[in-house]
Amino acid sequence: xxxxxxxxxxxxxxxxxxxxxxxxxxxxxxxxxxxxxxxxxxxxxxxxxxxxxxxxxxxxxxxxxxxxxxxxxxxxxxxxxxxxxxxxxxxxxxxxxxxxxxxxxxxxxxxxxxxxxxxxxxxxxxxxxxxxxxxxxxxxxxxxxxxxxxxxxxxxxxxxxxxxxxxxxxxxxxxxxxxxxxxxxxxxxxxxxxxxxxxxxxxxxxxxxxxxxxxxxxxxxxxxxxxxxxxxxxxxxxxxxxxxxxxxxxxxxxxxxxxxxxxxxxxxxxxxxxxxxxxxxxxxxxxxxxxxxxxxxxxxxxxxxxxxxxxxxxxxxxxxxxxxxxxxxxxxxxxxxxxxxxxxxxxxxxxxxxxxxxxxxxxxxxxxxxxxxxxxxxxxxxxxxxxxxxxxxxxxxxxxxxxxxxxxxxxxxxxxxxxxxxxxxxxxxxxxxxxxxxxxxxxxxxxxxxxxxxxxxxxxxxxxxxxxxxxxxxxxxxxxxxxxxxxxxxxxxxxxxxxxxxxxxxxxxxxxxxxxxxxxxxxxxxxxxxxxxxxxxxxxxxxxxxxxxxxxxxxxxxxxxxxxxxxxxxxxxxxxxxxxxxxxxxxxxxxxxxxxxxxxxxxxxxxxxxxxxxxxxxxxxxxxxxxxxxxxxxxxxxxxxxxxxxxxxxxxxxxxxxxxxxxxxxxxxxxxxxxxxxxxxxxxxxxxxxxxxxxxxxxx
Length: 700
Prior knowledge:
Layout: H1 2-17, H2 21-37, H3 44-52, H4 66-74, E1 76-77, E2 85-86, H5 89-99, E3 104-107, H6 114-125, E4 129-133, H7 137-151, E5 156-158, E6 169-173, H8 175-178, E7 190-194, H9 208-219, E8 225-229, E9 234-235, E10 245-248, E11 255-260, H10 268-281, E12 286-289, H11 293-306, H12 313-325, H13 331-336, E13 340-343, H14 349-360, E14 367-370, H15 373-377, E15 384-387, E16 391-392, E17 395-396, H16 399-406, E18 417-422, E19 433-434, H17 448-451, H18 457-474, H19 476-485, H20 493-505, H21 525-532, H22 543-553, H23 561-568, H24 575-603, H25 612-619, H26 625-632, H27 637-645, H28 658-668, H29 670-676, H30 682-693
Parallel strand pairs: 3-8, 3-10, 4-6, 4-7, 5-6, 7-8, 9-19, 11-18, 12-14, 12-15, 13-14, 15-18
Antiparallel strand pairs: 1-2, 16-17
């Protein structure tokens, strides 16, 4: 055994001598895996090679020479945890550049450990206002949980709008929500944009304009900028990153062992057989990339036909809980009892978070089927990653996204080797240059002279024309006011113009708009149709179904989800559509309402309408505001309802905010909350345990 270790060390040393450090690091990680599997201590030579390849956290001080022990301690930093952690060489390099005040755009692999650098920066530099922009709400909560435990004793961690600020604040938002603070914060010490590749329309056509808008406007208020992305080869010349140093780090901390099996597969039946064989032969956790919702359905049918429910007390409780609170016939309810979960962007936040938590648990979910939401929403990883489909939606997977998915294989200190099983031909390996062209959609939200340097001649002409048209429609002064206040939620200037034209040309058709504020859904039809026609084709269903859905979901707090689904049967809306349409109401529809309200208050002045109340109700899915916000924190609405009915918390209290609710719950404590809340089942208690863990403040 020792001879085998020595021979491998000899190979690694040879690679280092010939300046092939990456290859040496890969071979070393395989050697560390061999040590782990055979329960071997590292000898001084292995520790020396760990130091040479920069993987300092893997050093074993007990078996090291003094030089390695010195490095192990020299690279320790306080990242807000109980004990300082040792950074690897490239993490330390990045942290040093940030502490020097540099603006940095960095590309590093998924397994790099970028979050430790942020945490160490906050702990060492102690900035007053930190803005972190993340791509999804799921990642918002994951980041909040991490930072809350470390920094909530000295910072206010803010993830929602309309929060009273403290002296020191950490803001964690998707880009759309971040814009709500544009006129509230004087300046940010640092703006961090996670997954900044999404500023390119190539990677996120729908939301890239809103991210660029945030990068421009909030970046102007930031003293320092730090942008993060995986797998970017180069950055094109663009106005959004021109003052930033681009650093590309090809530094993996795990080894990806690829099994290209697609050549052995001739049809879907063989592919299904191969998948079942992989799952049968690998007892570790597996992440299955399905690519599309229809492929998730195909895999669901395969697994339900193949596997029987297993004896697993925790998952049986979860399956029963889903039956009771969502839908007894839902496929997820049946999959969970087979130790299989589903992760996609439509589910209620708390459901996604609970499943990721169960996937991390040893006796929890064993296999997780996912769309690309798993690479955008959470930082989970698995021993095995299976590429079932080489598509992302209808498009073929590009090399960038493919690398991002397989980068979920392996984890530092847990799985040195991530096994990647490829069941469809992968994309050709290539270079990923990130191009960030200026989007025409946000032109109308810019001041012409201020941003002229960012635009092409054609865009300057287009902006000039747009400004003239809008000034003519609503008046120069009103238009300037709206722009300076950054009130528009939409990043689509053409939509803003469409609304302004309709309000100006057809004012009488908007009569009675204020009726939406009255809780009489039977009177909403005409105006709801009028509003959604401003943005046709944006609602993932027919206009009639969407209008009826809004009217039924208005009873979201008063009725259970099974009761609402019963009413929705007439419109052929099942549980999966429920998630999709509710999400459309809380985001797309409420954003449209806010833009409509901002414009109509100035254009239809004589009518004195204000639909803020209705707009607010839509933005929180007709739930009490703090209930909706707590769901983002991992507490499902049905448990909040039990807290309310048991008088543990009054969610109708107009003074209640998310922060005062968290403070109250921390004061009451987990045990007393569980004791005082009626009708909690065992899985409710499991969720409350997880929720309280996410609001725990570190003792100072």
